[in-house]
Amino acid sequence: MSDVNVTVVGHVGTEPTLATSPQGTDWTSFRLASTRRVRDPRTGEWADGETLWFTVKLFRDRARHVCMSVRKGDPVVVRGRLTLEEWDAPREHPLPDGGTAVVTERRSRQVIEAQHVGVDATRGMVRFARVSDRADQPGGEAVAPPDPWDLSPGAVPGDASGALVEEGEKGPVPETVGA
After folding, report:
1. What is the pLDDT of residues 85-132, one digit of tens each?
2. Residue 155 C-beta-side C-alpha neighbours within 13 Å
3. Phi first, then psi: what are they for 59, rounded to 5°?
C-alpha cells in the first residue's frame, strides 16, 4: 500500500509546543484548520464552507524550527503523509434511573506527518533565516543571541537558541503602513 501525501492550506489552530520523547527525540504537534470558500450560486456571494481539522506532527529539527517560527492564527501551507489515528476513549453515559454507565467510544483524527511547513507569504510578509550550527562559526564560541527579526542595518540574524544563522539574498524591505 502506498502513502497518501497531501498539501493543505489553512491556519494554525493551536500553539505548537516542543516536547521530548522518552527516547530523547524532539517533537511537536499543532492543529490545522482548513476552511473552504464556497460561492452561493443564487446570490453570487462568497462564504466560508466546512472547516476540516488536522493534527500536524513534526520530529527532530523540523519540530524545533516550527516551534520557533509558527504561532496560533498564522496562515500556513503543510505538506506530508496523511494518516488516521484511532483510539478508544471512555465516556460516561447517563441512564434513565439517574445513574451513569461508562461506555467505550471509538475516536479518530486525521494526522499529517509533515515534511514541509511554510508560512503562506501570499497573506503577509515572511522573513526567512537559515539555521547553521554555532560550531561552524569561527572560534565556535557562544555569543549573545541576536534578534532574528531585527531589520536595522548591520544586524546579525539569529534564532531563539542563540545559533547564528545565514541569511538568504536580501531584498528591499517594504515600509509598513501605520508602523
Report:
1. 999 988 888 888 888 888 889 999 999 999 999 999 888 888 877 776
2. 15
3. -130, 160
Could you tell me which of 28, 17, 18, 33 has the C-alpha nearest to residue 74? 33
> pLDDT by residue (tens digit) across 21-42?
899 999 999 999 999 988 988 9
> Per the structure block, which three cell numbers stand in for 7?
498539501
Question: Residue 177: how many CA atoms within 13 Å on its side-chain side?
Answer: 1
Q: Which three cell numbers stand for residue 146?
A: 541576536
User: Closest Cα partner for 70 from 115, 117, 128?
Assistant: 117
Grid cell locating 126: 515572511
**Distance in angstroms (rounded) separating the CA atoms of residues 66 and 15:** 10
How many Cα atoms are found within 13 Å in the side-chain-facing hemisphere of 154?
0
Q: Are strands 26-39 and 46-59 parallel, antiparallel or unpaired?
A: antiparallel
Q: How far, in Å, CA of 78 to CA of 72, rounded?
A: 14
